[in-house]
Design brief:
globular; 306 residues; 73% helix; mainly alpha
Length: 306
Amino acid sequence: MKQFRIYGAIILSMIFWSLSFIWFKQANVNYKPLTIIFLRLVFAVIMLSIYLIMKGDFNVIKKEDRKWFLLLAVFEPFLYFIGESTGLTYVTSTTGSVIISTIPAVVALAAWLFFRERLRLINYAGIFLSFAGIVVFVLDGTGALSFNIKGLLLLLLAVFSAAGYNITLGRLVGSYSPVFIVNIQNIIGVILFAPIFILTDFSNFFRSSHSLSSLLPVLELALFASCGAFILFGWSVKQIGVARVNPFTNFIPIFTAVFSFFILGNTLTLQNITGMIIVISGIFLSQINGARKISGEVPDLAGKTA
């Protein structure tokens, strides 16, 4: 029964993160990307703060760690959300999830660059294969990009921001819980996004008509993707270890493609499916018996939307 609960929690967290791409598309019908980001962060901070208060898990941030928390928040949610949320306005939710799914491979490469963590040849082959899969996925029948290049560049900003986030995270996970770290980075994220929101979307937001249906996707992003998925994933890692849990993150693009087909009516071509399989295969290869982790907890948050 316990094993059933553990794997049920893992699958549910993957489903929540997969649906986040779809919920954003739904929210984007009524709200601009920066509005979605700001509201999502505010709601997530409220929910996670309540959770931490109930658990009694608030910590005092050490003085020497303050700069790392600030840098962490600059990478994610600030730069990450700008890249992901704005990029998703130019591509389908499935395409976005496939590109975002390369984060574990980029993190492995960043670990080699900054920490000289050596990978096996098969790991480097996997990294190359995952990027080759993206090319297959996004090219149309004439060999041209099937979506605006701006969307690709913005999503790549998210990918590399996530890599910087994970490198920075390695300095904090030994002293603070994952949920506490996510809550603090979201609080700083609210502070960073507030001036931009006020200058660009504030007046438009209050002139717009609001309803439960228009706010529902934003609430879903905050509750399920930013809170529930992190808690479920972190609990699962504590139960059976990150090595057994982390491979499940590679199924996020598959779940997203399936949900996009049924909920948004997106179509999938044989080329899309082939590219997706190549990307996921490459990510698996990049993690086979790879180098030691930056920290035992770093993969807990790798490749997720905060």
